[in-house]
Automatic annotation (TrEMBL):
Signal peptide start and end residues: 1-25
Classification via Gene3D superfamilies: Glycosidases
Keywords of the record: Signal
Family matches, as InterPro entries: WbsX
Protein name: Uncharacterized protein
Pfam families listed in its UniProt record: Glyco_tran_WbsX (PF14307)
Organism taxonomic ancestry: Bacteria, Pseudomonadati, Bacteroidota, Cytophagia, Cytophagales
């Protein structure tokens, strides 16, 4: 360690060291977090069971976080914890009749982010949640492309390969929309051509892939990148226990990252599953597996493990070293990072992990 320079206080030195660590972490990982907006009070997600039986999940701002003031506070907290962008779960409204494809209350947080006075602190991208109930209609594809391109023109929108990044949750749903994987590929080419005509370099399109057998569909459909939403089932796949230590998630998640990258030649964006405990949204007679031990320490370990894995696997990941956390605010599924009124301040685990200087990469 170099000696102190004359005139530099200990406090000043510590500050410079923190900035250096932060810059180092920034270079090694550009970290995002999936943002789910079921917290407007206009959807069914804020259940009595969640409010009454899981008070440790209530954000410091209260359960209804989809307001302009609270969005700006969330941006500040996320940025101060080492998070670089929000990946908004975006919902197509199949009942819009083509008049307003974005008119769904679960897109409210995205609209608030785009209006926030401090939005330049974070970037953003979208993950199109085209699962059951939100399947895209082929006849509305052009309108959807035009709407997404309008988002891409925002200066804070995340780019990969100098192209705006968009992710699709359900590959098979999109194949059902267009009929074949080849037709999906054609739709993607139309999308990219539209973007170029609007002055962009194109579009980087990512597929959520949770198992290697799905990689063939990603290839045939013309996706550019593979990524994940969460891999919670891998965390307890080798046990029949209802409650599984959360360390199992971290260990087995690395196995799925390895399996996907070894089986595919497409660049990868790893997803980090911070927790899974869906009891607030389950019927009283359902007892599905869940994790125990969720804390700022478990989050710290999960993010640190991903940073180390990425340092060993630079050739497998996208430029900019992007990873994404599941999730910022999935309270019903037990995966959240927002500071809460009670319980552990789990977002501090992200901050610690992003300031930790990882060992030099020695692997391939």
């Amino acid at each position: 360690m170099r000696p102190f320079k004359p005139g530099i206080s200990l406090i000043g030195f510590v500050f410079m060291l923190s900035v250096s660590f932060a810059a180092n972490a920034q270079q090694e990982m550009k970290l995002g977090a999936y943002y789910f907006d079921g917290w407007t009070g206009k959807t069914y997600h804020l259940t009595d069971k969640l409010k009454n039986n899981f008070p440790e999940r209530e954000p410091v701002w209260g359960w209804l976080t989809s307001t302009p003031e609270i969005m700006e506070k969330q941006i500040d907290v996320a940025k101060g914890s080492g998070i670089d962008f929000f990946d908004f779960c975006w919902y197509y409204n199949p009942l819009s009749g083509g008049k307003d494809v974005a008119n769904d209350p679960k897109n409210n947080a995205l609209n608030l982010y785009r209006q926030a006075r401090n939005k330049n602190k974070l970037g953003y991208t979208i993950m199109v949640a085209n699962h059951e109930g939100y399947a895209i209609k082929a006849e509305e594809w052009n309108d959807l492309c035009n709407y997404w391109i309008s988002l891409f023109k925002d200066d804070t929108y995340l780019k990969v390969y100098d192209k705006p990044l968009i992710t699709f949750y359900d590959m098979m749903s999109l194949i059902r929309t267009f009929g074949t994987s080849g037709k999906v590929k054609e739709a993607f080419e139309t999308f990219k051509s539209k973007a170029v005509k609007e002055g962009l370099q194109g579009v980087s399109i990512a597929a959520i892939v949770n198992e290697t057998v799905s990689l063939e569909w990603a290839n045939k459909s013309g996706y550019d990148i593979i990524t994940g939403y969460n891999y919670h089932t891998y965390g307890y796949q080798y046990t029949s226990n209802e409650v599984v230590p959360i360390d199992s998630m971290r260990i087995n998640e690395e196995r799925i990252w390895n399996a996907l990258t070894r089986a595919s030649d497409k660049p990868f964006i790893p997803a980090i599953t911070v927790n899974w405990d869906k009891r607030p949204w389950e019927a009283s007679d359902v007892r599905s597996p869940r994790f125990s031990g969720f804390s700022n320490q478990s989050v710290n370990q999960a993010v640190s493990a991903c940073r180390e894995w990425m340092a060993r696997n630079r050739s497998e990941i996208v430029p900019g070293n992007i990873a994404v956390l599941y999730a910022w605010n999935e309270y019903g599924e037990g995966a959240y990072l927002t500071p809460c009124k009670t319980g552990d301040d789990v977002v501090q685990g992200v901050k610690k992990a992003m300031l930790f200087q990882i060992p030099s990469a020695t692997g391939p």
